[in-house]
Amino acid sequence: MTPEQLRQYLTFYQDLGVKNVYRRTPATKNQTVKTPVPAEAAAPLPVPVELPALQPADDTLRKISEDIGDCRRCGLCQQRNKIVFGSGNEQSRLVFVGEGPGADEDAQGLPFIGRAGQLLTQMIENTAAKEGIPIHRPDVYICNVVKCRPPENRTPLPEEMEICGQFLFRQLMVIKPKAICALGATAAKALLATKDGVTRMRGKWHSWRDIPLLVTYHPSYLLRPYNQDAKREAWEDLKKVLHFVYD
Ligand code: URA
Questions:
Q1: pTM for the full model?
Q2: pLDDT tens, residue by residue, 209-243
Q3: Does 112 contact ligand 1 (Cβ within 6 A)?
Q4: CA 119, CA 110: separation in Å to the nearest integer?
Q5: What is the DSSP string of 43-74?
């Protein structure tokens, strides 16, 4: 098992709240069992192993970015140009989480700067202005579940989300926002471990590690011409999250 595989394995257990795992003592080379014994008795005694902290006590966004480094942990590294870490106010009370970078984001290394990103910016700024909330896009923090562009903008694979998810979780733990807004099904799945669709989950409060989380539609979905109802609902969702955070 490589150190990276071990780390992913431990992350999985840590997310389940497991603090200790038990490892069997390896049998020594010359160990021989002379008399037949029941299998349980012959098995070496398990040894408790304390799981190492996956999140450094004094974690920072800079450390997380350094840990990502020139990441080669999954296949997405093969076709990416730039890693898209996240951008905005690092002390923001509100974090938006999207799915993964598209072509424009991959070229510039910044999240949500293409068509979907322009729509997201308008939604944040216009809703805030209409509702009398004095914020602009740079006041919030925006990042994605996966930091490298999936080829042809396909949905990230579960293993890609799991590997990159550890960095998203660390980002959220460092920022500790008052609320998270999950944009679309991939973000909702990554943060809530749910199979429910966005239509079912949107507009309601959920929680990620005690931080209130609202799910809404992904802006790319809202760019499709026939989704008028979804657009109206997304504006409602945004009003809800902005008032919750900034009132
Ligand atoms: N879509 C996303 O989910 N994230 C981006 O950064 C851009 C488009």
A1: 0.82
A2: 999 999 999 999 999 998 899 999 999 999 999 99
A3: yes
A4: 15
A5: SPPEEEEEPPPSS-TT--HHHHHHHHSS--SS
Are 94 and 181 spatial neighbours (Cβ–Cβ below 8 Å)? yes
Q: What is the pLDDT of residues 65-116, one digit of tens each?
A: 999 999 999 999 999 999 999 999 999 999 999 999 999 999 999 999 999 9
Query: Which stretches within the chain are classed as H helix?
Result: 3-15, 39-42, 61-68, 103-108, 115-130, 158-175, 184-192, 198-201, 219-222, 228-246
- Say yes or no to pLDDT of 143 above 80: yes
Ligand 1 pocket test, candidate residues 82, 96, 105, 223, most atoms within 8 A of CB: 105
Overall size of the chain counted in residues: 247
Which residue is it, tokens 């920022």?
A: 175
Q: Please report the atom of ligand 1 found closest to the CA of residue 183.
A: 3
Delineate the domains of the chain, giving CATH numbers in brackets. 3-50 (no CATH), 61-246 (3.40.470.10)
Q: Is the CB of 100 under 6 A from ligand 1?
A: yes
**Ligand 1 centre and the CA of 44: distance in Å?**
50
Counting atoms of ligand 1 from 1, which one is nearest the CA of 99?
A: 3
pLDDT category at 6 given cuts 50, 70, 90 is: confident
